[in-house]
Amino acid sequence: MDVSNTAAAWLSFTVTAIGLGSLISQASGIREHMDPFYNTRGVEHLGTWVSRQLSSPWYRIAKPPPVGPMITAKLSDGFCGLNVIHVSRLPFEKTGKANWTALLAILHKRQLLAARTPPVEPAIANTKEGVYVIEVEGTSNVPIESPSWASLQTRPLVRHGAIACTVISRATLITMLSMCNARCTFRHSGAAGHRAAYASYSGQWYIEWPLGAPAVVHFAAHDSHVLSSDVYPASFERRVDKCVQMTAGVIEAPEPGKLKCAFPGRKPPGMWLLEYQPKGFPGAHGSRHLYNMMGGKVYDVDFLLAREYTNERDLPPHELRLTLPSKEKGRNATFYVPEKEQQMLAQLMDCLPWSPLSWSIHRGLRDLLLAFSRATMDNCRRRLAQKLRETVLENPQKLEARGWGPEFIRESIPDIVFSSVMARAGESGDAVRVVTDAALLLWDGLARGLDETKFWREQLELPSKVDQQLTPEMVIALTKCFVLEWSTDFDYQIYHDLPTELLFG
């Protein structure tokens, strides 16, 4: 009797356990099908961010949405709180289908150095001053873990189609475009909505805003390069504040409070007199709205006003006449520049910020400074090109220590440097990186000294200076002008095409 009771009790317990297990299993299946993010939680979608996901207890019917990074970027705060960002052309960590994972894999907190000989330590080695040494020989596009943004504040993701998106502001989008040296390749606004495409040094950007639907941003890293054959240094430095300022048409001297001046936009054909207005930026039209949106203080900024004249006889005394592109294709605008404004343009040329990559630039700033500097630059162009070529030939080991490919240095860089400087203009970010690194071989001063030279002011007072032998400071000043020549126009009024918030897929 006791045996039969015991057997019945165990049988009842077994049946109950199997029943509960079956119910739990069915509930888990139902729970999975009820989850709107059921196919966006894995590593194939979130990349390395799968490790940041919160666990959900089995007894909860609904799973919380997956979390992603809270991405912010603007003039006043930098990119996610950092003003200096190291950008790579290719992703250095595993990415997912979510486009924001690719972006965070090409923007880094620390410098990346590609080691082309097998390291003693594992693939990633943390060395002094926050430099990460990465072995790339014989690897594919995404072989290695790299410094990540795991410390970023998270936010719930939003599902749009098949992608789990994070939410960004339009100020953040414009800042990221500027950091990556983006230029517009396609733009269409019509009854169906707005679409635009931007090519950049680090990848392709696409913006879609269908009528009645949210605006979505897509980013794709380049598929035309692989790490194993890339002969360029793994990363280069970008300063968020300088990128935004150049897009908004503002140049600031390194010394606080010394100079901060904004430029007028491109003008229609006609006669224009350049007029310096202290703290005149608040009354300007155009880029001041973007500067405000980015957290800049427009009331601190001087302004170069372009005042229109219809009769040349009415113009005040002036000493310089410049021919600039106008808003109408094939026609020019004539700018007359008094002596005081010439001195201001020379100082602004000297205060151009140093950059290893070309700018996404305010076209009014670019037009005016190129017209002002053209004669001097053309006078020095061949000597600059020859000086840089000779410097590379004499110092290949220094470039190799910075991460350039040894054969590339000796067989290609000297001619690339010479040809790029002589070309006068172009759209290759690679060429700009080569020329600027070659120029740095001659510079043994402090890094902050790169942002302000005296060459342009001195040659304005003493034009014969340009015929002298090129000094390191002259090379730096002329190289910054070269970067200006190779920079790409960027529509600073892009914010008119965008809502205040966008989904970043």
Kindly estimate the percentage of residues that lie in beta strands according to DSSP: 15-25%
How many DSSP E strands? 25
Level of helix content? 25-40%
Question: What is the molecular shape?
Answer: elongated
Uncertain runs: 117-133, 135-147
Compute the CA-based radius of gyration: 28 Å
| Count of individual helical segments | 14
| Largest beta-sheet characterization | 7 strands, mixed
Helix-strand makeup class: alpha+beta
| Average pLDDT for all residues | 86
Strand neighbour order, sheet with most strands: 10-11-25-15-14-13-12
| Cα distance spanning the termini | 68 Å
What can you see in these coordinates?
By secondary structure, this protein is an alpha+beta fold. The protein contains 14 helices and 25 strands. It has helices spanning 2-34, 43-46, 99-106, 170-179, 240-248, 287-293, 339-350, 363-394, 396-401, 406-411, 413-423, 429-440, 455-461, 472-485; strands at 67-69, 73-74, 78-79, 84-87, 107-108, 112-115, 124-126, 132-135, 154-156, 158-160, 163-169, 183-190, 193-200, 203-210, 216-221, 236-239, 250-252, 260-262, 270-277, 302-309, 320-325, 332-337, 360-361, 488-489, 501-504. α8 packs antiparallel against α11, α8 crosses α14 and α11 (413-423) packs across α12. The N and C termini lie far apart (68 Å).
Q: Features of this protein?
A:
505 residues, alpha+beta, seven-stranded mixed sheet, six-stranded mixed sheet, 22% strand, elongated
